[in-house]
Amino acid sequence: MLHTTNNVIKHKAGLLNLAEQLKNVSQACKIMGVSRDTFYRYKELVEEGGIEALIDRNRLSDGST
Q: Cα torsion at 10, 15, 18, 22 (round to 10°)?
């Protein structure tokens, strides 16, 4: 189970935890209102970079490109 105090990633981690608890990705996605593609994108981020990887980098940028 993933734990965080960062509000930005609580919802994303919650989705991953719910799928683990239910042992059903489709049902967890339906409950949380997200697509399975989104679930697997979050899962891949966590596997590659840990829970911190779920932080939306776009929200952290200053908007300059």
A: 180
Reading the block at residue 48, the tokens are 């590659």
Q: Which residues lie closer than 8 Å to 6 by C-beta, 6 or more apart?
A: 55
Q: How far is CA 15 from the centre of its chain?
A: 6
Cβ proximity of 4 and 50 under 8 Å: no
Q: Cβ contacts of residue 1 below 8 Å, gap of 6+?
A: 17, 20
Residue pLDDT, tens place only, 13-52: 999 999 999 999 999 999 999 999 999 999 999 999 998 8
